[in-house]
Each structure stands twice: as structure tokens, then as C-alpha cells.
Amino acid sequence: MTGLYYEEFEVGETIEHEKRRTISERDNQQFCDMTMNQQPLHLDAEFAAETEFGERLVNGLYTMSLAVGLTIPETTDGTIVANLSYDNVEHPNPVFHGDTIRVQSTVTDKRETSDGDRGVVTMHVEVFKLTDSDDVLVCEFDRTVLSLKRDTAE
What we know:
alpha+beta, Thiol Ester Dehydrase, Chain A, five-stranded antiparallel β-sheet, 5 strands, 38% strand, elongated, MaoC-like_dom, MaoC family dehydratase, MCH/BMMD, HotDog_dom_sf
């Protein structure tokens, strides 16, 4: 297990997640197929070419899901009871096939549960696509988890 127990999260701490992922056309197609999302903006190159974006967009829910997955090793791998919520989701910029993303999580809040056996941790997750100049924010959201405490996990 590489995740953090409740006691190890520090409010204000930003965790830079080292894993990155380049999103392929196949990734986007499979996600759309699995979720039965047939939006032509994601799948139809001819249709998407006529939009303001000029090409197909990666499904925003895939971008968000991938971001959560990339955060797991340094946050909740083996130390989580449950994801409680995803709030304030925004997609300020598009993601295209071939874009590489990186993720960072900032701990914004934590509190013990009423019985004191576990803790609730909220993290603000930011997703960036890498560019030659500055990284571009493509998704952000708040993720709240129910976390194990070290002494109750052993």
C-alpha cells in the first residue's frame, strides 16, 4: 500500500503525482463505448472538424476518471474506505487525442468521523495538459474520501 492514512494528510499540502498519461484515440473510443456515450464531438472526426474545436475532443468524464486514477498511488491506495463525493467539476480547456496530462492534489480539509475511527479528507484535484510553454488546466474538481486511520487499519 502506498496511500496515506488520515493522520498523514496535511491541510494545505500539494501532492504532485508523478505518473503521466498520453491519451490515445483508442482510450477515448473505449471509454465512450463502455459508457454508451456516442456524442459525435468525441467520435466523429468529420462532425468535430466543423465545430469551434476543429477536431474530436476527449470525453471530459474520461479525463476526470483518469485523473482520479493517477492520484491513487500517492493518496488512497489501500487506505480508503470509500469515495464520498466529487464536487465543483470544471473543464476550462479541451483535451485532444495525443495530449499528455499530469495531476496534482491539494488537501483542502480533513476531519475525524463522529466515532473517531476514520477521517474525511477533501482534496482539490487539478489536471493539466503538458505543452511546450505552460501547462494548461483542463479539469479541476474536489474529491472527498473516507480514509482509514493508521491505528484502526493494523
